[in-house]
Design brief:
about 150 residues; Aminopeptidase; single chain; six-stranded mixed β-sheet; 3 helices; 6 strands; alpha+beta
């Protein structure tokens, strides 16, 4: 569902994990009870950085993936909400973006639960796979301080 093929070997998984660990703004999603890593969440350059309506904003894109064994338990919205708070308070971002493929209804629900608003659908080529797909794009603006 995340836009890449399943890992076909331990070596592939190890390489991907090492690339995540080496990046700044990549976070593990950890199951509290066991301290087991069950997914990841990262901050990336936003699709909206090149959009005239949004180019003036300081923003990042949120991407996430969770092991299928843990789907449907509310863990991804919990992790996304935590990083949203962190981004707006600590990083002082003005907006966050995210997206998902048309067929990924689980990610759509996560983004809607977290307050993201749909902006548009557009074609995209995955850097990791070269696969072309259509993705739904969302934005969340920092709440105005009272």
């Amino acid at each position: 569902m995340a836009g890449w093929e399943h890992h076909d070997s331990i070596d592939v998984s190890h390489g991907i994990l090492m690339s995540f660990i080496s990046k700044k703004n990549e976070f593990a999603i950890v199951l509290k009870e066991s301290n087991k890593v069950i997914g990841s969440l990262g901050l990336h350059d936003s699709w909206a950085n090149d959009e005239i309506d949004y180019e003036h904003l300081i923003m990042k894109e949120i991407g996430y993936v969770l092991s299928k064994d843990y789907w449907g338990q509310g863990l991804t919205p919990e992790a996304v909400k935590a990083i949203i708070d962190h981004c707006f308070v600590v990083y002082r971002l003005e907006a966050l973006t995210s997206g998902h493929s048309l067929s990924n209804s689980q990610s759509k629900r996560v983004l809607e639960k977290c307050g993201f608003k749909y902006v548009k659908t557009r074609g995209h080529i995955s850097e990791s796979t070269g696969f072309h797909y259509h993705g739904m794009k969302y934005i969340l603006f920092k709440p105005k301080e009272e």
